[in-house]
Amino acid sequence: MAAAAAAAAVGGPQPPQPELPAPGLSLDKAATAAHLKAALSRPDNRAGAEELQALLERVLSAERPLTAAADGEEAAAAGGGGGPGAAEEEALEWCKCLLAGGGGYDEFCAAVRAYDPAALCGLVWTANFVAYRCRTCGISPCMSLCAECFHQGDHTGHDFNMFRSQAGGACDCGDSNVMRESGFCKRHQIKSSSNIPCVPKDLLMMSEFVLPRFIFCLIQYLREGYNEPAADVPSEKDLNKVLQLLEPQISFLEDLTKMGGAMRSVLTQVLTNQQNYKDLTSGLGENACAKKSHEKYLIALKSSGLTYPEDKLVYGVQEPSAGTSTLAVQGFAGAAGTFGQLDSSDEEDQDGSQGLGKRKRVKLSGSTKDQSIMDVLKHKSFLEELLFWTIKYEFPQKMVTFLLNMLPDQEYKVAFTKTFVQHYAFIMKTLKKSHESDTMSNRIVHISVQLFSNEELARQVTEECQLLDIMVTVLLYMMESCLIKSELQDEENSLHVVVNCGEALLKNNTYWPLVSDFINILSHQSVAKRFLEDHGLLVTWMNFVSFFQGMNLNKRELNEHVEFESQTYYAAFAAELEACAQPMWGLLSHCKVRETQEYTRNVVRYCLEALQDWFDAINFVDEPAPNQVTFHLPLHRYYAMFLSKAVKCQELDLDSVLPDQEMLMKLMIHPLQIQASLAEIHSNMWVRNGLQIKGQAMTYVQSHFCNSMIDPDIYLLQVCASRLDPDYFISSVFERFKVVDLLTMASQHQNTVLDAEHERSMLEGALTFLVILLSLRLHLGMSDDEILRAEMVAQLCMNDRTHSSLLDLIPENPNPKSGIIPGSYSFESVLSAVADFKAPVFEPGGSMQQGMYTPKAEVWDQEFDPVMVILRTVYRRDVQSAMDRYTAFLKQSGKFPGNPWPPYKKRTPLHPSYKGLMRLLHCKTLHIVLFTLLYKILMDHQNLSEHVLCMVLYLIELGLENSAEEESDEEASVCGPERCHDSWFPGSNLVSNMRHFINYVRVRVPETAPEVKRDSLASTSSDSLSSLQNSGTAQVFSLVAERRKKFQEIINRSSSEANQVVRPKTSSKWSAPGSAPQLTTAILEIKESILSLLIKLHHKLSGKQNSYYPPWLDDIEILIQPEIPKYNHGDGITAVERILLKAALQSRMNKRIIEEICRKVTPPVPPKKITAAEKKTLDKEERRQKARERQQKLLAEFASRQKSFMETAMDVDSPENDIPMEITTAEPQVSEAVYDCVICGQSGPSSEDRPTGLVVLLQASSVLGQCRDNIEPKKLPITEEEQIYPWDTYAAVHDVRLSLLQRYFKDSSCLLAVSIGWEGGVYVQTCGHTLHIDCHKSYMESLRNDQVLQGFSVDKGEFTCPLCRQFANSVLPCYPGSNVESNLWQRPSNKSIQDLIKEVEELQGRPGAFPVSISSETNLSKEMESVMKDIKNTTQKKYRDYSKTPGSPDNDFLFMYSVARTNLELELIHRGGNLCSGGASTAGKRSCLNQLFHVLALHMRLYSIDSEYNPWRKLTQLVEEVNSQQGNEEQQPEVPILYHDVTSLLLIQILMMPQPLRKDHFTCIVKVLFTLLYTQALVALSVKCNEEDRSAWKHMGALKKNTCDAEKSYEVLLSFVISELSKGKLYHEEGTQECAMVSPIAWSPESMEKYLQDFCLPFLRITSLLQHHLFGEDLPSCQEEEEFSVLSSCLGLLPTFYQTEHPFISASCLDWPVPAFDIISQWCFEINSFTERHAEQGKALLIQESRWKLPHLLQLPENYNTIFQYYHRKTCSVCTKVPKDPAVCLVCGTFVCLKGLCCKQQSYCECVLHSQNCGAGTGIFLLINASVIIIIRGHRFCLWGSVYLDAHGEEDRDLRRGKPLYICKERYKVLEQQWISHTFDHINKRWGPHYNGL
Description:
Structural class: alpha+beta
Low-confidence stretches: 1-27, 62-84, 306-371, 815-823, 966-982, 1013-1033, 1055-1077, 1164-1170, 1208-1230, 1378-1385, 1408-1415, 1480-1485, ...
Strand order of the largest sheet: 22-21-23-24-25-28
Number of helices: 77
């Protein structure tokens, strides 16, 4: 409301002003200021002070509202606009004047700056600023540097990265608390405080008086402007209005802070001085306005605590006078002190009384909280109130920056930190209410990270202001607002409360600023120690953690699919990670040494208490509620991680921190429940809960969460297993996994809790879990480096990885200070030990690879650990991928040919504390399970898989590896009487139990089971009965009963009265076996031991009888050196052999028994039934085989099609198959060219009424125009000096030439003298496939109706070739013609050149000599017309119309022959600029020039040239009377023939001829044109050399003029040319300065010959290409130096009898149609008549550059940083702002704004516009902020990738990682190649429309 109020004030009556008549006189200001300063400098300065105060009062109140602001609305209406601004500016002017004390303000600033002891940089930045972080130099992980300090310091070889600041930050350069001094930049290295002089007193004297008033004025404004938001209406608008008004004031303060240390210390004094504050703000004075403002302040204070019941009471205390309150006297520390005590006592008290959740919450928000927080919000200085308003206004950026800019002042830093802590609770409340919590969070962290990263400061505040108490309490209160009752376990009676993950607080992560501050201060050792020592705090913290225990509970949907899938689970995971796990890791990092044992004991103690409370609150006894799971058990995890640390680092005795057995049993239940639920989720048992449950299961094991989630859970289970009874543990596992009923010897069973289809995967899950539990050593004895190595190997085995994805996938210790930082030394050294780097490769398809790391061979051989892989895979397919790669490795290295099983890997030794874990392997329960499963697998029972067998064998092997004591006296133990009859096995050691035979087993089976009948028979025979008696009763076993028994024992042991606790579970399935089909008991005869089962299994797996033969019988050595490599890798057979060998090694007894079993002839194995699984795999194989065959067939068909296509159409590889096919047989067979239509599949010739066409892509191209004439490559500019000017490009040179001609000559004639299309020329390319044009039309129709296809626009005629899917946009009709014809045309004729010239002239003059008469509108001619339209529309109008009279036919004529020229020139460029390589490569593309020529010729003949203008006459006839003199004055002359571009003439002549052309006519045209070309070369040569040379040659040649072949000697011709041209003024105009310009070479005959050849070569190359396409002749290959002679003989210019001995002379190719000297003089005459008037231009037009360099993209600098630093701050030339997305064109170096609206013209954004101007629709841009290249092609665009890679060969799109990037030359070459060959459309697949918005 300040705006309104101030406006009213200015408009209203001015208060009386005693001192100065008007505030507006600036002269007065300076004078007054000087006067006051003098007055104040006197020793007795009271008068001056008063005077100043009065002045300030008036000046700074000029902007104060005097009317009451209550009726703000009306005031705003009345006050109107511009008032306040003026008044404020005035006040600021005054302040500046006063500060400067009469001098100039700028000089004053400079003077103050001189006293700046700049030891710190302290530059403050806001979000999106580019800063650097160097881990090598940083002490705190939050350390950051501004770019300037970073580049000024030396960080070579350091681990640094560039980043975009998210929340803002400040530069730490010079602050040795945060970073090492070695990293300081040059400016901040010197501790300069010593040599900075003392600040003179009078310099800042005025500031000390003026600033308090100024700041007070600001505060009054803030008070005035604030209105409590009414009800729920957010008042952001009003707040922003106030802030906008205050912008100049705050900026003024900000500028003051930038004046350096001297000014900062004055500001600090002002801000922290309590007396000043008291005097100015108490509101006690008589000033009504001050009173009003004070009231507003009190109201605001009151409203901040709106929620409190005692408000009135406290507020009452405050009202009388803010000064007298006792608390104020007591001082800040006192207030905080009382707060601290109140708090902790309250916490403990509340912990004692575990009330109901709701009640508890009410109690927590009771009186103490309000009082403490109200007491703390007692403002005693400007700083405190400023911060208060900053928070109220939700942290405006300007205020934040000002407060942070002051931080380099040490005194201020401490005061501000204390103030911040004091307002902490208030910050939390404001944050919770805020609507912009994201922005606000960022701003809060922006401040707090600067304060709390500094260990010294954090320690001080912790000691003096109870920082930890405040933080923990504030966090607790914050979470309290969103608690709900927990539904875990006992829904009705649960007393536990948990946070509700659906609330905004958690969903939007609103808590993160507070949590991140907490994590930040816990990273300081001194602070963390205080926390760990303070029992009250630990209790409170555990209380906080328990809010997350059991949150986000999932209940399994059993009937229908859940209606609404809530996505809150991610909020829950994030909350546990950030609010629980990260503080935990922070604390753990300080428990590294023995001395810290006490801390661990404390945490463990309170953790267990909290857990006990939790079990009580949820009413937990021993059975978890079914079908429920929560993934969140932070209390369990705290407990586990502190245990692990205690054993690993602090040498604590584990048992001393473990609870009793009963508690351990409870502890293991929930983590075990999670493991079982994971298996259920993967078995699709939770499918009705939607996808999100899968998401939870994946997040639980994902790399960022696993070490805070699944790892502690598994570790806790390992601890429980090592201490609990093994039989109890094992049976619990199988019961939790619901597979107890499956573990029976019977072939059929009932499972009451699990559907049959889930049984197998749940059994696999249970066994896999046991394997992980028993073989994982992450917390049981592995060192950090071993862990890192294991993690890395697991990730690399799944897939090759890039360096950055490895960093991301390897769970590092989440606390940044732990020392295991990714990228640290150990990471790199381990990486290089286990992996090889595969450099980025380029596949021909253009798909770009990144640099990858792949496991070394020895890693596969020795370190591949399937258990670790299974533990770490988020997707199950990754396990398969790892196995596939392992298989491939074994095949490749020849170690194992078949399908291997996962290898068994040796484990690191167990830490002694966990030895008990191995008892699991030696307990009868497990042995019974293993025995049962082996038996079932052998008997082929259902629901068992190879995976089950694999895990069973793995467990047996683990048991053998870890067998406890050696059996000492084996024999005796056997002879002794059987100790226990009732149990299956005699002891618990696996080694001896393996050989124990089990004869009979009693099982319960459904009555339908096959066992029942057999049994009844058996029991009658006395024989079997007696054997039954002998063996004792048959074995019976029930897992569940066993578990019950054990549980009872344990409970009884721990407490006698616990008996009542175990409720008989009536609901349980075991007590009522009478359900479903009746179960009966049957007795099975088994007579097997584990060893015998293994041997039979070996037979079964190998499919042979007696396949197992004990290896030691042949080679006794085996028993001595057991490590045999041949057993390392293999399948099940190998595994069985390995186990039997180990069993034999462990005891002689086993060895003997194995031998015995093998001696007995084994009974025939039951015929092998194919199990479902195997059937599946067999089916799969068969299906694959069939698919392969189908594919082969298809491919063969395609191949034959292609072959026939290639035989008919032209093809690169076999030029002899080109369209004009040579006919080898003697008799002429008339055969037409046959085309295949790829749509309807029919073959046939192209006919008039049903024409066939080639699939083509037409695109405009400016590549040709990018040729340059200098050899130096163009570089991308990276400084202001290096701008690029495109005047040396081909396109520019041609433009200049055309406009020069058009200035002096007749327009129509100019348009025949040159070619266009260097920019925006149309390039035609084809994939070589043909189709009927009517088929194509229907194909386009179907595409139009098909909505799916995006990426190209059907309306623009775009489609993809139906066969090869290449992008295309038109169809080029094939001209119907038979091959014989073309063959006849090629017969050489013996006519003389004169005859041929006449014929050519006649043919050109004959209109419509085209076989297809234009008058009859056939389909073919229609198509030809439409394709011509397409070609015209491909390029923009400006690239087609060059004539002065728009729309003249000459224009079309020029455009058409230029299209031919463009395509020929581009093909030449694709061949590398010359034809030395011969005919084999057509630059990898099939050519469509032949068809194109037909289309162009057809249209060119429509514009027949008037015969007298036809240049052919001028070339071949002497014109008798030269009558051009008369007509000259009134009209412009024609272009002299010597100025014509010869290649253009060639195309015009050929396209004017009727098609198809005869070979001898073609040769004739070439010969004639060569004479003109040669003359041009001579003229150019004569112009280039100087006067003496000319006269010398003139004489030399004149002597030889009468020799026989004078016409073929260049000396003669040159001398003649010189003498002819000397008649005109061409040579005269030369002044002396001209000579200097001309090249000073001495011309030798060789160099002249070379010049002439170079001049003619471009024409010869184009002509040879043309001949190759029209007549299908091969291009010969040759050396570069003989290119001229080879091409000229190939074109028929060289006479056949020409001898090759003496050096080749270009003139010998001449064949003059009329006497040479006559025609030359005629040509020279034209030139002379022109140079009469324009000698300069005449000369310029004669000299042409013949050697052009191929087009290239700009050369880029080696290091990306050079580009980034220059461009990312560069301002746009259009709007002078720094663009949000800057980009730079890689063709011409223009700087553009991507998507910049500022630079939009007629709805085209700048990049699109530039792509049209620079590349005729193709643009290649480097996006500066992303390092990515984007391609614009017409109306589509695609992201191409990056040509800059980091040291590990990967891209860094969007510069997220910020590592240094270096140019990848190969990639850049690929990009350039695609640009030159116009293949962007074919190679890049992901195109999208850009709607002109780029």
